[in-house]
């Protein structure tokens, strides 16, 4: 599966355990594709490392954290009134909501290597 929305950053601790972090924002038309990528990554992890999803300190091989927020933007129409030296502000039309999702995966070095290879993360 090629990832078009999720761009993971990888870091590793002194014990060789890794963390992969990704954040992506999408407007409503792109949201199903973003959710599909997250679903694909998590489905792969559960299928290839079954029964081992738990924090490393609790004996797991991998774990994940998934969070999201939806924001509605209201652009501001700004103008400078030269005569008064004041800024005039008016709220414009509300834009479609933007959804931002973050996915953090942590795991053993074997898990991280396999995940990075499966999704061509370099």
Give the DSSP E fraction (strand runs of 2 or more residues).
Answer: 35-45%
What general form does the structure show?
elongated
Give the distance, in angstroms, between the N- and C-terminal Cα atoms: 14 Å
Number of helices: 2
- The portion of residues assigned to helices is 10-25%
Number of strands: 6
Quickly give the structural class: alpha+beta
Ranges with pLDDT <50 over ≥5 residues?
none
- What is the succession of H and E elements? EEHEEEEH
Mean pLDDT: 95
Largest beta-sheet details: 4 strands, antiparallel
Cα radius of gyration in angstroms: 20 Å
List the helices and strands and how they pair.
Blueprint (H helix, E strand, L loop, with lengths): L8 E4 L5 E9 L4 H18 L13 E10 L4 E6 L4 E6 L6 E10 L1 H10 L4
Provide a concise account of the structure shown.
This protein has helices at residues 31-48, 109-118, and strands at 9-12, 18-26, 62-71, 76-81, 86-91, 98-107. With 122 residues, the chain is α+β, with helices and mostly antiparallel strands.
């Amino acid at each position: 599966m090629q990832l078009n929305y999720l761009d993971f950053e990888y870091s590793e601790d002194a014990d060789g355990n890794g963390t992969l972090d990704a954040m992506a924002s999408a407007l409503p038309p792109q949201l199903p594709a973003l959710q599909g990528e997250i679903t694909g990554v998590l489905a792969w992890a559960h299928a290839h490392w079954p029964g081992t999803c738990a924090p490393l300190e609790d004996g797991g091989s991998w774990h994940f954290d998934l969070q999201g927020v939806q924001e509605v933007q209201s652009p501001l129409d700004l103008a400078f009134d030269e005569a008064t030296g004041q800024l005039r502000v008016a709220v414009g039309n509300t834009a479609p909501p933007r959804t931002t999702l973050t996915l953090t995966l942590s795991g053993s070095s074997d898990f991280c290597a396999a995940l990075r290879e499966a999704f061509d993360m370099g």
